[in-house]
Every structure is written in structure tokens, then in C-alpha cells.
Amino acid sequence: xxxxxxxxxxxxxxxxxxxxxxxxxxxxxxxxxxxxxxxxxxxxxxxxxxxxxxxxxxxxxxxxxxxxxxxxxxxxxxxxxxxxxxxxxxxxxxxxxxxxxxxxxxxxxxxxxxxxxxxxxxxxxxxxxxxxxxxxxxxxxxxxxxxxxxxxxxxxxxxxxxxxxxxxxxxxxxxxxxxxxxxxxxxxxxxxxxxxxxxxxxxxxxxxxxxxxxxxxxxxxxxxxxxxxxxxxxxxxxxxxxxxxxxxxxxxxxxxxxxxxxxxxxxxxxxxxxxxxxxxxxxxxxxxxxxxxxxxxxxxxxxxxxxxxxxxxx
Length: 314
Ligand code: SAH
Ligand code: SF4
Prior knowledge:
Blueprint: H1 6-15, E1 22-29, E2 34-40, E3 46-54, E4 63-67, E5 71-73, H2 82-85, E6 88-91, H3 94-108, E7 117-120, H4 130-141, E8 153-157, H5 161-168, E9 175-179, H6 185-191, H7 200-214, E10 218-224, H8 232-242, E11 247-253, H9 267-279, E12 283-286, H10 300-306
Parallel strand pairs: 4-7, 7-8, 8-9, 9-10, 10-11, 11-12
Antiparallel strand pairs: 1-2, 2-3, 3-4, 5-6
Helix pairs in contact: 3-4, 5-7, 8-9
The site of S-adenosyl-L-homocysteine (SAH) has 16 residues, from strand 8 and strand 10.
């Protein structure tokens, strides 16, 4: 608005915010295919957002996926997760979720590629911040905003059963990813405290109902932890727990985190685990690790930035 005198422009700039997220750190890895942002919020708290480019293959088109955060920290406290270890601060607002998409899009500029998919796999438990997450999905979808289809959005949850049921009733064709990580309740409760409240059978039943209702298959996330949940017997038990109808399993070799003795299994062991699932007719992939050198595991960039000595400007 150059027709306004400079003091008025300054006053406008001081009085209004055009975004709720400001890039504080940006790191690029995997030859430009992975970009990780640390965004600063209005109250100086920070969150992580990751953009991942995937080239076209014979089976799929090129994609650019943004991994967004839903909370500052996370109250669930899973043993293997950097975000869980950092504790919980607050929910993000709908605007802060929406703006992660807009800020990353702006930064992509006109580099030919635009965001094609959203996954709620950054910091936080999205179903613990239900209204803001569903509000953001609906806002992206509006024809007068981005017209971005909920079919391209995946909500990843640790398994908050009542909210999975509520999500199914929204009439939104979103994809559901369930972070299962263990085939029995005893083990799962030792890794994920909230499993005592919502055990495996209840989670799988809610996920099945969502899949039947939307026709979209459930993706089960399974972080492979060496010597803990990676045996062939555990793979067999997993097949009976989830069944093969409308399911897909994503095996994620654990990304080591600071101060934890947990580690990923060997590649051969991960592949053997995968073969057991595939043998039972369950479509299974092993997730390729992205951006290890930029602290790509959930919550790690922020964890390191919070250490007093580690600051690097954007
Ligand atoms: N709270 C939600 C979404 C955020 S976590 C959930 O748990 O599903 C997104 C995914 O990252 C989850 O599947 C989670 O288990 C996984 N994850 C967390 N810490 C990890 C680590 N250290 N290595 C690999 N995957 C991890
Ligand atoms: Fe929270 Fe998900 Fe991390 Fe568990 S894995 S602590 S639910 S962000």
C-alpha cells in the first residue's frame, strides 16, 4: 500500500500479523528432497514442520508431502519419541496449523512443485487437539481458500478411540494412520502409557469402522525397536491383531534420539519382519529414512534447539 504515508504503513505492520508462524531455522537435506523448518509462534514457542519431495516412480506420481505439527510438545509421552520426552506445552490454534501449510508453500515459491499431501505426523497428538485439526482440514478444503481435498490428508494418531469415532462421523474422507508399534497390550502399555485407557482391540475396532465407513484403508505405523518389538513371533501376532482387509503397515526403523538406549534393528531383520506380514497378505512397506542429518525424527530439531548451546539462524 505505497499510497499510504510511511508512518501509517509502519503502524499497520506493527498492528496486524499476516501469519502466525515465522521461520527461525531451515535445514535442507537429501539433495534438496527434504526441508525441515523450525517455526516460531507468536508467544516465542517453536514447532517443527517438514516438507518431503518424492520423485515419480513407475507406480506413483511425483508428490510433495508436508508433515505438520498439531501441538507444542505432546502430552502422551511415548518412550521412543523426542517430542514425547520434551513434555507438553500447549495446543496449536487452527491458524497456526493452517499457516504451516501456507508458509511452506510460500517458501516453495514457483519451483514447479506444490504441496500435494499433508500428514499430521509432526509434533503432537492431533486427536488431542481435535477442533483445531478438523477446523484446519476443513479450511484447506474450502473452495474459496486452497480447495485442498481431505483425501490428501492423513491424520496420524496414537489411538484416542473416542476421537477416532468422532472423526469417522465428520463425513470427511481423511486417511487414518494408527501408531500401533506393538502386537500386545502389555508391551504397548510399557511404550505408550495411554494404551492402558485405550487398548489395542478397541483401537483396531475403531480404525476398522473408519475404514469401512470411508472406504479408505487404515495405515498402521510400527516403529521397529531392536530387541523390543521386532521378533518374527511379534510379526505373526501383529497379523492376527490387524487382519489384512483395508490395512497397510508402514514399518519405521527407529530414528535414534538423544539420551535413549533404544535403537533400530538391522535392515535384514526389518525385511524379515516385513516378509512375515506380506506372507499373511498384508501390504507392508519399510519407510525410507529421511534427513537423518537434519534431525528428522519427530521433535529432534526442536529438542536440539532448546539446548542452550545449540542455536543456528535460518
Ligand atoms: N502423535 C501422533 C502423530 C505424531 S508422531 C502419533 O503418534 O501417531 C508421527 C509418527 O512418528 C508416529 O508414528 C510416531 O510413532 C513416529 N515416531 C516418533 N518417534 C520416532 C522415532 N524416534 N523414530 C521413528 N519414528 C518415530
Ligand atoms: Fe506424542 Fe506421537 Fe510422540 Fe507419542 S509418538 S509422544 S503420541 S507425538
